[in-house]
């Protein structure tokens, strides 16, 4: 974004909020506003949230893709996990929250792209969550995008279109993670109450989906500024 526009970084956990603020300061990212708030309590109909064009949703997850980096394999409990001993109640709780957070992200009235990402390797937190919101996403005008088509590892084939998902199994060189991209079809923007609104014209510019206007003056500048408004969220529960 080259320092332009506005990024809203939403974090709930008190311990992590300071780390996030320090990271933003260290990066010199002057256009990032850190919000110590529960993502699910945001009012999507009020500015600037009503103008958000892109969302990166990085919700709480099991972190099962980072076990090697965290040295979890040295713990006695890791042996049981390798033999199938997964904390199922915790996974169910996480998946329920992840679905709720993803549906909320897809309800932002002007959002055009939503990326759902975890550092988990469990189907329950990844493909199953995406599959559970597909009908809701479709009703809001979204469809699955195909990020990094050259990437070989794709989603588990549990539903039609799962090949559009991206996943990586953990190794010594890389953590495991999962990515799903939702893209809103042209002319299908909606309000939070699911009533349709007339969206601005959409165009692809330098890999970024945004609004544009041929009119000159302040209105054009205002629209160009809005297209660069995004939000990222990593709530911890």
From TrEMBL:
Keywords per UniProt: Methyltransferase, RNA-binding, S-adenosyl-L-methionine, Transferase
UniProt KW Transferase keyword: yes
PROSITE patterns according to UniProt: SAM_MT_RSMB_NOP
Gene Ontology MF annotations: RNA binding; RNA methyltransferase activity
Biological processes, Gene Ontology terms: rRNA base methylation
GO cellular component terms attached to this protein's record: nucleolus
SUPFAM superfamilies on file: S-adenosyl-L-methionine-dependent methyltransferases
Domain annotation SAM-dependent MTase RsmB/NOP-type: ranges: 1-185
InterPro entries, alphabetized: MeTrfase_RsmB-F_NOP2_cat (IPR049560), MeTrfase_RsmB-F_NOP2_dom (IPR001678), RCMT (IPR023267), SAM-dependent_MTases_sf (IPR029063)
Listed Polar residues bias regions: 196-212
Protein name: SAM-dependent MTase RsmB/NOP-type domain-containing protein
């Amino acid at each position: 974004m080259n320092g332009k526009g506005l990024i809203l970084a939403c974090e709930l956990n008190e311990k992590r909020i300071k780390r996030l603020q320090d990271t933003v300061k260290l990066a010199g990212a002057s256009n990032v506003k850190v919000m110590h708030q529960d993502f699910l309590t945001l009012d999507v109909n009020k500015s600037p949230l009503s103008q958000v064009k892109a969302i990166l949703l990085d919700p709480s997850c099991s972190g099962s893709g980072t076990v090697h980096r965290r040295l979890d394999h040295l713990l006695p409990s890791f042996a049981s996990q390798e033999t199938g001993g997964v904390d199922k109640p915790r996974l169910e709780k996480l998946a329920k929250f992840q679905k709720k957070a993803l549906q909320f992200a897809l309800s932002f009235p002007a959002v055009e792209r939503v990326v759902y990402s975890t550092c988990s390797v469990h189907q329950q937190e990844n493909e199953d969550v995406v599959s559970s919101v597909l009908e809701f996403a479709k009703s809001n005008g979204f469809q699955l995008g195909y990020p990094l088509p050259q990437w070989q590892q794709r989603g588990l084939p549990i539903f039609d279109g799962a090949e559009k998902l991206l996943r990586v199994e953990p190794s010594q060189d890389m953590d495991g993670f999962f990515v799903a991209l939702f893209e809103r079809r042209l002319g299908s923007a909606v309000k939070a109450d699911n009533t349709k609104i007339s969206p601005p014209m959409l165009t692809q510019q330098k890999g970024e989906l945004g609004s544009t206007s041929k009119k000159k003056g302040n209105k054009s500048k205002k629209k160009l500024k809005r297209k660069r408004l995004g939000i990222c969220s990593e709530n911890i529960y």
